[in-house]
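Our collaborator T.R. sent over the components below with a one-line note: 'Predict the complex.' Nothing else. No constraints on interfaces, no templates requested, no preferences about which chain binds where. So this is a plain run: every listed entity goes in together, and whatever single assembly comes back becomes the starting point for the next discussion.
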Amino acid sequence: MIPLSWYLIFAAALFSIGLFGVLSRKNAVAILMGVELMLNAVNVNLLAFWRYLAPENMAGQVFAVIVFAVAASEVAVGLALVISVYRRRQSVQADEINLLKY
Amino acid sequence: MLQDWLFIGLMVVIAPIFPVAALIIPQLLAPKKPNPLKSQTYECGIETVGDTWVQFKAQYYNFALVFLVFDVEIVFLFPWAVALNQLPLYGVLVGILFIEVLVIGLVYAWRKGILEWF
Amino acid sequence: MIYPLQVVFILVSAVTLGAALMVVTTRNMVRAALWLVLALFGVAILFVLLEAGFFAVAQVIIYIGAIAILMIFAVMLTRRIAQDPGPQLNSTWPIAAVIALLVFGLIVFLVQVWDRAASLPPPLPQGFAPLQELGVALVSADRYLIPFEIASVLLLAALIGAIVVAWERK
Amino acid sequence: MSDPVTFVAKWLEAYLSGLGLASGWIAVIMAALGVIALGSAVLLLDILLVWVERKVVARFQDRLGPNRLGPFGLFQPIADVLKLLLKEDIIPQGADKFVYNLAPILALATVIMLWAVIPISATVAGSEINVGALYIVAVGALGTLSIIMAGWASNNKYALLGAFRMVAQMISYEVPMVIAILIPVILAKSMALTDIVESQTVWYIVLAPIAAIVFLIGAQAELGRAPFDLSEAESEIVAGYHIEYSGMKFGLFYAGELLHALTFGGLFATFFLGGWRGWGAETYPILGIGYFLIKSMFMYWVIMWIKYSFPRVRIDQMLNFCWKFLTPLILTVLSITAILDKLMSGLPYWAYVLGMLLSNLVILYFVYQAVGRYARRERQRVADPEKFRVNFPVKSTASPSHLP
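Returned assembly:
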């Protein structure tokens, strides 16, 4: 059988890759993809904890359901923002969207 | 439970082998004489003009957006439907409430003209 | 059946992590989206190994069938990004790499020192039907009714918000 | 000899354990053999379908169809396959080679994967996973992906346009179709397709006729068949997402489309026509396979009948029909079915069936009235466009309408 630590380390690696993508990519859509990877890592953790520590308690599964909803909402609004910014500035590069910086 | 998924897992591995085999045979039998004229893009009898990446109408995004929200909510309704026998009437009505919230979104998109094609 | 499952896990997780790395490094955005699909599919297979079949199919339906499609649509609508010249990473990417590695190291360290990390999955109780349990849990007032309804309101808010943000009047 | 499939499986299992293999490996080998047998059977059926489709369309159009090769032209599909195998493989310039080659493979493989959960007889079903209904939706989502991959990788405007149209259509019609699947799930209280078939002592088309109709329309749209064949509208965008494919790669798309149609026939039979159920199918499972194939073929014929009888709709009509008619309708039916199911759970089964049928008929009556009113209004609007002009608030800000 697979020990719990394997899932946790896999999720940590996936989360770190997603984090790297969020912090380093220029393209706004790519940043959203990084966020998706991070949310997936969270879901792997939630379901692994459900299966290994408390299979009778549905909290882990319900949390995973909520994470699905959050991921969908985040993509819907995030991509709408990207499209809105693109229409005004003709760019989706996150480092060029700096109007609020000054 | 995992035994049930064994068949699915093998299906995911083996099902692509059939079309891959069908693609390998022509590689061995068929003639192969590529030339640049032959591999040109087909566009209604004229040479292709400009970039393939033309910008698309934003309506496609609208429908994908509404679809995304509906899809997520419908998937959540499936466990509720399976458990319907063990729920009191109140639990059923709560599920209906979930659907009605979905309907509000549909009505909003409709009134806003998001579902129009123009 | 102890050994083969571990092999499946290692293969799937290696492919998933490789695809995830391609997502954050590929220049072409549509290709990045396709790599994302592969990574998400790998996670779905891990859900099957966790005996959460519902989440595996939900992952494919929601992430691959809806979210990845929406992302490809968004890439096509903002067409310039598919062929961006120049570097795809910003100038501070080494710092980002260090932070990511630090987070990874920290979590691995925590997993190492945690005494229940090596635990094996307990057998599911006889006659335990996770799907029905989940359905009941989601609509029972003393359990997770409020999060369930809030999830639907959240999705409604996301729909309205996205429509307002993307199609506001100039 | 009433159940040859189980007989052969039992014999193989005994033979393998006689070789001294561990039980786990026997399960893996049996499943692999099952997958190969199922896939081969389905693909053989697919080759036959080429002939069936051409023969039936010929009859609908008052022609003879293929009749030269062999009796009734039965060898025509074999000649077709041979021709496709011998054709040169052309990759258009600027194509993304890997994705371009992957798309047709995925298109056919996903259709084969759908058969993994369909129960074929009382004893033969690939897998009895407890989320079978959702599995079908998930595999369909992978099929959508193959279309967008084909359209994007071809580096052709028409292909991309066709792919976009097709995907917009598929994801739109997926919503009412998935809700239509939810209704048999509510009636059977299970997502496993085997359970759904076993609980159909009365076919669900009697309990949920509206869901059945909506599922059929959704299937027609998912298949991209007329009246929803906008993605390959020959007069507008030549052939749709597979315009740049030739030879066997085109053949794979074609085979996938035909097999998909039969698969939807099979799914309709499973969800609404009782699958393998029929007289004596429980005691003689071999009969179940026959019943299932007859029902699937009948639904396949209905899908073809619709395809060759209706003209193509416009894209705005297609989307309006889905979002403003089918989706609200099926959401209403879903709510009413769930509440009625709860309220009538104590009644005898015949009363339950009657209640469901009556509620559906009442809804159908109101829908009929509403559609008639709408059609009258639409005819007037088209005759006199100025009088009925509607201005939508976002019209001025949306992207210019010259975009494709």
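Summary for T.R.: Residues 35 and 126 of chain D are 8 Å apart (CA to CA).
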